[in-house]
Write a structure and sequence with these properties.
The chain has 3 helices and 8 strands, in the order E-H-E-E-E-H-E-H-E-E-E. By secondary structure, it is an alpha+beta fold. The protein has a single domain, classed as 2,3-Dihydroxybiphenyl 1,2-Dioxygenase, domain 1, CATH 3.10.180. A hairpin with a 2-residue loop joins strand 3 and strand 4. The two termini are about 20 Å apart. Keywords: Isomerase, Metal-binding. Its EC number is 5.1.99.1.
C-alpha cells in the first residue's frame, strides 16, 4: 500500500509565538486554527502550510488530560508525530495487523476536516508516534 507524508505534528507551548515563527520566518500560511476538546485530544490546533507541506501545531488546552501536555512534560516541545496518508485506512489497518504492528485503538477518530486517523503504537515504531490517515470524503 502506498503511503505519502501528510503532515508533521509539532507540540508547542505558546501557539501565538509558534504561528508567528512559521509565518514570519518560514513564510507559512495559516490554513486553519481551532480547539478540540474531544477526550484524548484536548488541544488547540493550527494547520500551517509552507510551500505545499503541512505542519500541525499542537498546544495543550488541558494540562491534566491533554496528551500534548503529557508529551511536553515528558519530552519537551518539538516533533510530536509524523502522519502518513494511505489510500484506505481500513485496508492499512489490516496490513498493520498482519505485520504484527499494534495501533492505539482509542485514537481512531475523524477530525474536523474529515480526516480519519489512528496512531500506531510507539512500542512497535522505534518510539516514534506515527499517524495513519485517509480522507474518505474527498
Amino acid at each position: 500500500m502506498e503511503k505519502t507524508l501528510d503532515h508533521i505534528g509539532v507540540a508547542v507551548r505558546n501557539m501565538d509565538e509558534s504561528i508567528a515563527f512559521y509565518k514570519d520566518i518560514l513564510g507559512a500560511t495559516v490554513i486553519d486554527q481551532y480547539k478540540s476538546d474531544a477526550k484524548g485530544v484536548e488541544s488547540e490546533i493550527a494547520i500551517v502550510d509552507v510551500n505545499g507541506t503541512r505542519t500541525e501545531l499542537l498546544a495543550p488546552t488541558n494540562n491534566t488530560t491533554s496528551p500534548i501536555a503529557r508529551f511536553i512534560k515528558q519530552k519537551g516541545k518539538g516533533v510530536h508525530h509524523i502522519a502518513y496518508r494511505v489510500d484506505n485506512l481500513d485496508d492499512a489497518l489490516i496490513d498493520l495487523k498482519q505485520s504484527g504492528i499494534r495501533v492505539l485503538e482509542e485514537t481512531l477518530r475523524i477530525n474536523k476536516h474529515g480526516r480519519r486517523l489512528i496512531y500506531l503504537n510507539p512500542a512497535d515504531t522505534e518510539g516514534t508516534i506515527i499517524e495513519y490517515c485517509d480522507y474518505p470524503t474527498k
